[in-house]
Amino acid sequence: MMRQYELVERVRRYNPSANEDLLNRAYVFAMKAHGAQKRASGDPFFSHPLEVAAILTDLKLDDATIVAAVLHDTIEDTNATREEIDAVFGPEIGGLVDGLTKLNRLDFATKHAQQAENFRKLLLAIADDARVLLIKLADRLHNMRTLNFMPEAKRGRIAQDTLDIYAPLAGRMGMQGLRSELEDLAFRYLMPDACGLIMTRLEELKSKNGALIARIAAELTDQFARRGIKVEVKGREKLPYSIWRKMERNSISFEQLSDIYGFRILVSAVADCYAAVGVAHTTWPAVPGRFKDYISTPKQNDYRSIHTTVIGPGSQRVELQIRTYDMHEIAEYGIAAHALYKDSAGHVEPIDAGESRAYRGLRQTIEALASDDSEKFLEHTKLELFQDQVFCFTPKGRLIALPRGATAIDFAYAVHTDVGNSAVGAKINGRIAPLISTLRNGDEVTIVRSDSRTPPAAWDSVVVTGRARAAIRRATREAAKTQYGGLGRQIVERAFSRAGKKFSEAKLRAALSRLARASIDDVFISVGRGELFSADVVRAIYPDFQEDRKAGPALAPGEAGWFGLAKAANLVFRVPGKEENGDPLPLRGVDWDTPVRFAPRGGAVPGERIVGIRTPKDGITIYPIHSPALVEFDDKPEQWLDVRWDLDTATKAHYPTQIQVTTLNEPGALGVISTTIGETGANIDNVVFNPTGPDFQQVRFDLQVFDIQHLNAIIAQLRDKPVVSKVERLSG
Ligand code: MN
Predict the structure, then answer these.
(1) Which residue of the set 20, 43, 58, 77 is catalytic?
(2) Pick from 176, 388, 637, 673: most CB atoms within 10 A?
(3) Secondary structure letter of residue 628 according to DSSP
(4) Gap between the Cα atoms of 284 and 312, Å rounded
(5) 63 counts as catalytic
């Protein structure tokens, strides 16, 4: 295990002004915190954070990163807290360690290979400091190097995550060295047979051609030197995983691989790169189609190099990668290399084309800091990658990517349209939360659903995803169609027949543009909602049509027109509130010394279950058992009276009740209704009009009926009438 002074020495080697005291404190703090904890290998646990820190010293990172690496598992695995680390090491290091703790927790979420891309984005989004990712990658690398100590069952998962998530992440950050090692370690565990085979073949080749590589390298160096270009030639043996991937991708055998041996030609200036290409191509024949200039057009991860393949010394195909030392540094260390860039006089070469937005952001930050003589580049390099997205989980671990500002409603629709349409509530990280809550990275969201399939139309303005908005509009339209479409069709069809015209959908369809509606259903919905007059629909097809009845507004409550109609129907209006004849109500279970009355709105009628409520103010009030008004007395059982009808009393008395009728607004409608009611022997005490549109009315009838059968018969007969679209009993 690395000693305390060794850690300090490693850092001092590249950073003579390192904060020795800080490093020592971190060493002691982590050692005490981890105490006697052991790794799976039997080593003291403390050796792990030290190794992670050592990997990062190879990348020559700043003090804060090294200290955070030493502390990286303390919050997660020991009693240490963020507050404690803040107090001892300051909030900067506290923030880094906290970031790593968050990333570690993500490791427990279920992941699927096809979600790896999203998962990488999540890592980037959560780690708002590039250094957190660097430590995380070093942590993963050490865990992979010691994977053989892990239980067999866990190795596969860890190796697969490494291949799917962490190795590509290292690649994205431009750290090819780290990426290759992660890939190769994972490959050994995941495909031991394929890996073993390739390694055996590589050994065979080496023993056969070992001298050849050295000879080629020597000849290359010599040829470049003769043309006055100083180069460093490095023989590069490909790792088993990259060989295997090439075989897979191109469906070729090991023997067919032409470039198992590659050479890196390192030069000091960009101009030398092109000069070196000239030398290579004039000395040896170039293989057509293999020349790539990533210097003029860098890869998205800032990789720059010239690639070419020639038939080189000994008629061997030789792949050459030609680059400057700076480019090489970036190719190997990526983001980490940028931290060193300040050493080359704050000079960052601009890259023009082919940059991803993410890297442009990173580069701009780096450029902005290039003039700063601060040692700490990455410290200021807050990752602005994927700031426009949030990543959340379903309870089963599925990762859902949403635009920033998305709500739980958006989440529900992203999971499935049905889930969105039936959503009534949400749990975010196990806590009940409103559906309109804005989601944050890493939130686990559970959607609570009901049987209903109609989302509130108001959600339309709350959601941010197009998918959710489209689904909400579709669903509310469907609901409107069901709710208003039928009524509207009824009204339109009757308007046509009143006008003496035959209704036809084809003709209506032809008139849609004149009605400014997109579909026949839209017309019906608009008419049903009272937004469009049925007469206008008729006129859209028959422009000469003149309506002979009064326009809708004439039918406002209390208008003489309605009372005229009522009179024509021989309706007898009784004065509301008139006393009954004084006979005792046919009830059992009431104390007749107390005043007894029916509930003011929609009293009970004989034959239905009733209940009495005793209040000091009103005495006893009789309600139907289903009355919503009873809810108020739910927690006052002492006020409830068990009351029954005394139906032995054979008096044919009337009892008050209320119904609401939705009727087409046309001449004679009220006559039909009142006649129907009158024919059953009921009285109408009062009529209250509630015009809801030009084409139909809601009318409340205060009735006097004999009993529940009588009332039900009235309702059934009214429902039978074509002018009636809806009848409901009111209870109050
Ligand atoms: Mn760790």
Answers:
(1) 77
(2) 673
(3) G
(4) 6
(5) no
Domain 4-192 matching CATH 1.10.3210.10: the answer reads yes
Question: How many residues comprise the chain?
Answer: 732
Whole-angstrom distance, CA of residue 51 vs CA of residue 14: 17
583 — pLDDT class (breaks 50, 70, 90): low
Rounded Cα gap, residues 135 and 74, in angstroms: 14
Residues 6+ apart with CB under 8 A from 355: 298, 300, 363
Q: Is the pLDDT of residue 428 over 70?
A: yes
Stretch (H or E) spanning 613: strand 610-615
Rounded to the nearest angstrom, the distance between the alpha carbon of 450 and the centre of ligand 1 is 43
CA of 66 to the centre of ligand 1 (A): 13
What is the CA(137)–ligand 1 centre distance, in A? 10
Cα pseudo-dihedral 716, 719, 720, 725, rounded to 10 = 180
How is the chain split into domains, by residue range?
4-192, 474-541, 561-576+654-730, 592-642
pLDDT tens per residue across span 116-155: 666 666 666 566 677 888 899 999 999 999 988 888 878 8
- From the CA atom positions of the chain, what is the Rg in Å? 41
Instruction: State the greatest distance between any 2 C-alpha atoms of the chain, in Å, as a whole number.
Output: 129
Calculate how far, in angstroms, residue 16's C-alpha sits from the geometric centre of ligand 1: 27
Tell me whether residue 77 is one of the annotated catalytic residues: yes
The CATH architecture that domain 561-576+654-730 belongs to is 2-Layer Sandwich (3.30)
User: Token pair 């659903």 is at which residue?
Assistant: 449
Among residues 43, 76, 117, 493, which one is catalytic? 76
- Residue 240: which of 204, 207, 196 has the closest Cα? 196
The pLDDT of residue 126: 61
Beta bridge partners of 399: 393
Rounded Cα distance between 384 and 402, Å, is: 16
Nearest 5°: phi and psi at 703?
A: -110, 165
Determine the distance separating the centroid of ligand 1 and the alpha carbon of 48, expressed in angstroms: 7
Task: Determine the distance separating the centroid of ligand 1 and the alpha carbon of 157, expressed in angstroms.
Answer: 16
CB 311 within 8 A of CB 284: yes
Residues 6+ apart with CB under 8 A from 157: none
DSSP 161-212: HIIIIIHHHHHHTT-HHHHHHHHHHHHHHH-HHHHHHHHHHHHHHHHHHHHH
Contacts of 685 (CB under 8 A, 6+ apart): 573, 574, 576, 656, 702, 703, 704
State in Å: Cα 244 to ligand 1 middle: 29
Query: For residue 280, which of 226, 237, 211, 212 has the smallest C-alpha distance?
Result: 226
Q: Which two tokens stand for residue 612?
A: 């009495």
Range in 159-173, 247-261, 394-408, 566-580 the model is least confident about: 566-580
pLDDT tens digits, one per residue of 265-309: 999 999 999 999 988 888 888 888 888 898 888 776 678 899 998
Ligand 1 centroid vs 123 CA: distance in angstroms? 16
Q: Do the domains spanning 4-192 and 561-576+654-730 agree at the CATH topology level?
A: no
CA dist., res. 411 & res. 275, Å (int)? 56
